[in-house]
Specification:
single chain; alpha/beta; 16 helices; 43% helix; 16% strand; globular; Chitobiosyldiphosphodolichol beta-mannosyltransferase; transmembrane
C-alpha cells in the first residue's frame, strides 16, 4: 500500500527539481560571468581551489566558493569583493550497523544535502569541482548542472578510489564501486583539468577523458622571507613552541633572541646566530599516503651520527598540518629521546606558513601518491620560497623534483639520513655547500606564478566553452 505514496513523493520531488532548474536556467544569461567553485573538503587546506577562485575573480568573474570552513583561507580570498564563501556542514557517519551500510547512508544524505545547497546558491555558468573527493560530488554537480544549464569542470588532483584503496585494499568492493563511479561520471564533464602529464595520459588511455595539464604553481606570497620577518616569526612561535626559543638569554636583556636569530636592541639589526640549529620543515595532511616513520627513523640515524662524533648541526624539525593520523605520529614522536633533534607539530595560520617555508633551510616531502599520478603541492610552495627539498620517490615525481638540481630524491629512511649527513648539513652553514647550490639553482630557474600560468592555460578554455 505504501508503494504508490513513495512513487508519488518521488515524482513530486522530481517535478519540483525540474521547476527549480527551469527557473535557474531562465536567469543563466545574467550569470554568464559567475562560477561555483566546489570543494568538499576544508577550503583553508585546498590551496589550488583557492587560487582558482582568486584567478577567476581577478579576470572579472564573480565566484561562490562552497566548502568546509575548518581553517582560515588566505586573506586575499577573504578580502575579495568578488568571492563569496558558502559554508557546508560536514555530515558524520552512523556509528552502528555494518560499515558498508554506514557509508551508503552517509553518501545518500550527503547527496541530498549538497543538491539542496547548490540549488540554494546563486546560479553559475560553470561549476568547478575538486576531485577527490568525488563521491557523491561528481554526480551531484553533474545533476545540478543539467537542471540549471551549468557546465561542469572537474579538476583532477588524484583519484578518489586510489585513496580509498589505501584504507580498504584495492580489491575491496567499495573501492571497485568507487572506481566505476568516478570513471562513469567523470566522462560526463564538459572540461577536465589535471595536475600532471602522467595523469592526463592515464585519463585518456584508461577512462577516455580528455584533460588539460595545469601544473601547480606557487602563489606570489610564497617567497624567501627577509631576515627581520624571520625573526618576528620565530619570536611569535617561541611563545608556544619551545624549539624556537633561545637556549640562553642575551647579555643585554633588551636584545631579542630566538633559537635562530638575534635582534640588536639599539640598531634593530637582525643577525643569524652562530652555531644555530638547522631548520627542517615538512607539511602534511597526516594521511595514509605519507609514512612519517621514515622521517623519524632518518632523524634517529642523524642523531646517532652526531653522537658518534660527526660534525653536524642540531636540527629543529617542524611538521605542520592537520589530519587523522596526527595523534598516532605525535605519540611516536613523544617516545623518542633525542638530544640533538627537536620535533614540533604546529598548525600555522595561513599567513605564517609561507613565512616559515621562506625561513627554513630544507624541506622534506614524504608524499607517496596513492595513484602515482599526482604531485605534492607542498613541494611547489617550497620551491616558490627557494627552499631545497628532499622528496620521497614515486612514479611521476620527476615532473617536479629534478634530482641533484633543485633537491634530492630518496627511497627509504637510510637514504634520507645519508642525504642529510653527506649532501646537505655537512659543514653547515657552508656558503659553498650543497644546500646553497640548490637554492641558487632555484633562484635561476624562474617559472610563472599561479595566476600567470592560470591565465595562459585555463582562461582560454573558459572563453572557448
Amino acid at each position: 500500500m505504501a508503494a504508490p505514496y513513495v512513487a508519488l513523493f518521488a515524482l513530486s520531488l522530481l517535478l519540483l527539481l525540474l521547476l527549480v532548474g527551469s527557473w535557474k536556467r531562465w536567469g543563466r544569461e545574467r550569470a554568464a560571468r559567475h562560477v561555483l567553485v566546489v570543494v568538499l573538503g576544508d577550503v583553508g587546506r585546498s590551496p589550488r581551489m583557492q587560487y582558482h577562485a582568486l584567478s577567476l575573480a581577478k579576470h572579472g568573474f564573480s565566484v561562490t566558493l562552497l566548502g568546509f570552513c575548518n581553517s582560515k583561507p588566505h586573506n586575499e580570498l577573504l578580502q575579495s569583493d568578488r568571492i563569496r564563501i558558502v559554508r557546508l556542514m560536514e555530515l558524520q557517519s552512523l556509528t552502528v550497523g555494518p560499515r558498508v551500510l554506514q557509508y551508503g547512508i552517509k553518501v545518500v544524505f550527503q547527496a541530498v544535502y549538497y543538491i539542496y545547497k547548490l540549488l540554494q546558491t546563486r546560479l553559475g555558468a560553470y561549476i568547478s569541482l575538486q576531485n577527490p573527493p568525488g563521491l557523491p560530488s561528481i554526480s551531484v554537480c553533474w545533476f545540478v548542472g543539467c537542471l540549471c544549464g551549468s557546465k561542469l569542470i572537474i579538476d583532477w588532483h588524484n583519484y578518489g578510489y586510489s585513496i580509498m584503496g589505501l584504507v580498504h585494499g584495492h580489491n575491496h568492493p567499495l573501492v571497485l564501486l568507487a572506481k566505476w563511479y568516478e570513471r562513469f561520471f567523470g566522462r560526463l564533464s564538459h572540461m577536465n583539468l589535471c595536475v600532471t602529464s602522467a595523469m592526463r595520459k592515464d585519463l585518456a588511455e584508461n577512462w577516455c577523458i580528455r584533460a588539460v595539464t595545469v601544473y601547480d604553481k606557487p602563489a606570489a606570497f610564497f617567497k624567501e622571507t627577509p631576515l627581520d620577518l624571520q625573526h618576528q616569526l620565530f619570536m611569535k612561535l617561541g611563545h608556544t613552541y619551545s624549539p624556537f626559543r633561545a637556549c640562553s638569554d642575551p647579555v643585554d636583556l633588551a636584545t631579542e633572541r630566538s633559537a635562530f636569530t638575534e635582534r640588536d636592541a639599539q640598531s634593530g639589526t637582525v643577525i643569524r646566530l652562530c652555531g644555530r640549529p638547522a631548520l627542517l620543515v615538512s607539511s602534511t595532511s597526516w594521511t595514509e599516503d605519507e609514512d612519517f616513520s621514515i622521517l623519524l627513523e632518518a632523524l634517529e640515524r642523524y642523531e646517532q651520527l652526531i653522537l658518534d662524533g660527526d660534525n653536524l648541526p642540531s636540527l629543529v624539525c617542524v611538521i605542520t598540518g592537520k589530519g587523522p593520523l596526527k595523534d598516532h605520529y605525535s605519540h611516536l614522536i613523544g617516545q623518542k629521546c633525542f638530544q640533538h633533534v627537536q620535533v614540533c607539530t604546529p598548525w600555522l595560520e595561513a599567513e605564517d606558513y609561507p613565512l616559515l617555508l621562506g625561513s627554513a633551510d630544507l624541506g622534506v616531502c614524504l608524499h607517496k601518491s596513492s595513484s602515482g599520478l599526482d604531485l605534492p603541492m607542498k613541494v611547489v610552495d617550497m620551491f616558490g620560497c627557494r627552499l631545497p627539498v628532499c622528496a620521497m620517490n614515486f612514479k611521476c615525481l620527476h615532473e617536479l623534483v629534478k634530482h641533484e638540481e633543485n633537491g634530492l630524491v630518496f627511497e627509504d629512511s637510510e637514504e634520507l639520513a645519508a642525504q642529510l649527513q653527506q649532501m646537505l648539513f655537512s659543514k653547515f652553514p657552508d656558503p659553498a655547500g650543497k644546500l646553497n647550490q640548490f637554492r641558487k639553482n632555484l633562484c635561476q630557474s624562474e617559472h610563472p606564478r599561479w595566476d600567470e600560468s592560470w591565465t595562459q592555460t585555463v582562461l582560454p578554455l573558459l572563453v572557448d566553452m
